[in-house]
Amino acid sequence: MSSSENTDKDGLGERKISMESSCSSVTTATDSPSKLVNPANRVQKRSTISARESDMLQKVKHIVPKLTSQMHKGQCGRIAVFGGCILYTGAPYFAAISALKCGADLVHVFCEKGAGTVIKGYSPELIVHPVLDTEYGIEEIDQWLPRLHVVVLGPGLGRNQSMLGRISLIMDKAKSLNIPIVVDADGLWHLATNPAMLKGYTQAVITPNAMEFSRLVKSVLNKDVAPSVSPDPKLVEELAHGLGNLTVIHKGATDLISNGIFTEDCATGGSPRRCGGQGDLLSGSLATFLHWANMSDSCPEPGPGVIAAWGAARLARGCAEQAYNLCGRSVTTTDMIDVIHPEFSRLYESETFL
To answer: What is the pLDDT of residue 283?
Structure first.
């Protein structure tokens, strides 16, 4: 990342430096050569990015596939979002369109019958299967699962107890095919009732917020912990370890990411706005990053789950920040999705087109 992209948070310090540098280089016809400013002596902009963040940015760039004319459709990601009921149709759409705009090639949405027409109406880009609550739904899912790279379970799923058995079955089928799984939103509510259905599956990433994290800690670690946007990183690490070293992203003031062995944080960006749907943007883009990390020939430590999670968290926080700067208090998740392209380019587009 160039130094021009790493300014002070308020920008005032950088503008002052820039103005002083510009003024010091201005000369007139009466200036003697001795008064000319040596470019080597000019004040240089200093990056405010930490060495650790710079290192993680480089690791994410390493997994982003270079686009070439030799690639075929689907190679950059065939993602499926399982979620969407008559009450919640926006969440699966936000997750799916975020995966697509992040760089996946094809995105499917498996939803309940009553949500299908609505989600189809949001975008022609998505492949919608309104079968999640039908008798023949599992048969259609069985046909598609082997073709998928990553599945996202939970956005807009609802908390119908009858869905718990079906979600558990889909998890088992995905695990048997070694497909990475992202669990978010209502999927985490179901997971808290039966943590064993995902325990030990290191290909999984879960994305709890403060309340969801508190429920999981109680269920997995048998500890009562009040919801907090700034939990103890050791507790996030302990939960990841308790779930068999899958990857946990605790969404908060600082996003904390751990697989029980490696723990990272992501605090840059973000916004004070807490409109619904931001977690769906994260889970959808995470699915795309997770596929890229797993298809990489040499994914560096701390491994695919943590690198993909950090990359998606940094992108989501960046989108939130940029959209908030444009829209302020009125910002919505749609505004954040609209800036995925420029923010992704700013963070990760380092010679990714050949």
So the answer is: 98
- What would the mean pLDDT of 190-214 be, rounded to a whole number? 96
User: d(Cα 302, Cα 218) in Å, to the nearest integer?
Assistant: 27
Asked, for residue 354, whether it belongs to a domain, the answer is no
Judge if 233 and 298 occupy the same domain.
yes
> For residue 57, is it within any domain?
yes
Same domain? For 14 and 162 the reply is no
Rounded to whole angstroms, the Cα distance separating 206 from 253 reads 17
56 in a domain, yes or no? Answer: yes
Tell which of 32, 48, 64 closes a domain. Answer: 48
pLDDT score recorded for residue 350:
62
Q: What percent of the chain has pLDDT over 90?
A: 80
Residues 40 and 163 in one domain: no
Question: Which whole-number Å values give the CA distances from 226 to 63, 235, 241, 303, 324, in the listed order?
Answer: 36, 12, 20, 30, 29
Task: List all residues 6 or more positions away from 226 whose beta carbon is below 8 Å from its beta carbon.
Answer: 214
Strands 106-110 and 78-82: parallel
- Give me the number of domains the chain comprises: 2
**pLDDT of residue 36 exceeding 90:** no
CB 260 within 8 A of CB 202: no
Residue-range definition of the domain harbouring residue 225:
52-348
CA dist 148 and 227 (Å) reads 35
- C-alpha span between 260 and 267 (Å, rounded): 20
Instruction: Report residue 133: phi and psi, to 5°.
Output: -115, 20
Domain co-membership, 264 together with 320: yes
Which of these ranges, 13-17, 117-121, 292-296, 348-352, has the smallest mean pLDDT?
A: 13-17
Is residue 353 included in any domain, yes or no? no
Residues 44 and 191 in one domain: no
For 233-266, how does the pLDDT look when each residue is reduced to its tens digit (9 = 90+)? 999 999 999 999 999 999 999 999 999 999 999 9
To the nearest whole number, what is the mean pLDDT of the chain? Answer: 88
At residue 58, the pLDDT reads 95
